[in-house]
């Protein structure tokens, strides 16, 4: 779109197409002037589709048709996000989806087509999200990123948004490579893992879950793109959590990281996955999922009144123990096991707005009188600081 500043064309208003048009197969110009293709979905759907409390069907939570490689793990994560938002009966216009750059960061275009969206700059999703959240605390913030986006160029941004307790659901679609730029190792690639070309990674890996725990995230989970039963309730619970929620989702890149020697491939993760718990989210008294399995259930009440029902597989796993979660993670990593499930939650969590003591009214709705109350008020503030 000639004439627009870089990035501006990527700001989507609710219900609006990326370039204001709505026909399948059209092209728009991307940040670097490259042509990006978007395929709109047909609007008709079966009249008998199941509806949620708001009367919306799944289709109302979908976006455009994905242009990712067929079989990409990221598309499965998209499906889980759609399912979680449908189940929670979220009003799409109350969601802001913010991403960086990468195949993973393209995915917000494929879900919640009627939500706010901003496809920002590589590694800068967290600061854009933090700014938006400070300006309007009333929206639900979904940060979608990749391992390159968050563990390489955006590592500092990731760290600061977590330690500041921004109220968000931060999802990393982790394939261990820079998928979009053809498969270079990212900082989450395990030492000793092999690239498609047979090169062995000699660098140590960053475990974003371990770092999120250390930085004080109040909801920390790991899952696998191919495990919808585990992932959907985790996303739903993270959205309901008030504070910094972080979910690392192992998401095999079928083009560059799904071969023997990769530790992010479908086969490797299936063989090394160790789930610590199974989770259902109960909103009020209505169970969203009633797929109860044998074993003990622990109900955790969150700040907003929603409850997490943890179906414990490991009898002694306690998701309220941050130090225990860190040790558990390291112990299993040493054995080559990928721990999935809800590793840590603080039901009493606070967020950045609580820490800054901001007013309940979203700042973007304050009028001029509230923002510029006059020199007498300023004099009073200055006097209080002397
Ligand atoms: C400032 C900047 N540096 C480098 C790039 C090139 N680049 C685009 S996407 C990408 C890596 C994406 O990897 P990841 O976040 O893991 O996403 P994936 O494609 O694997 O889902 C890189 C290095 C860029 N777009 N901008
Ligand atoms: S290159 Fe990899 S990450 Fe990108 S769309 Fe294809 S499979 Fe997915
Ligand atoms: Mg990646």
TrEMBL record:
Keywords, in A-Z order: Oxidoreductase
Q: Which Gene3D superfamilies does the UniProt entry name for this protein?
A: 3.40.50.970
Q: What is its EC number?
A: 1.2.7.11, 1.2.7.3
Record-linked CDD domains: TPP_OGFOR (cd03375)
Q: Where is the Thiamine pyrophosphate enzyme TPP-binding domain?
A: 101-249
**One Pfam family in the UniProt entry:** TPP_enzyme_C
What are the protein's GO molecular function terms?
Answer: 2-oxoglutarate synthase activity
Q: Where is this region: Disordered?
A: 1-22
Q: Which PANTHER family match?
A: 2-OXOGLUTARATE OXIDOREDUCTASE SUBUNIT KORB-RELATED (PTHR48084), BLR6744 PROTEIN (PTHR48084:SF5)
Instruction: Give the protein name, as stated in the record.
Output: 2-oxoglutarate ferredoxin oxidoreductase subunit beta
Native source species:
Bradyrhizobium elkanii
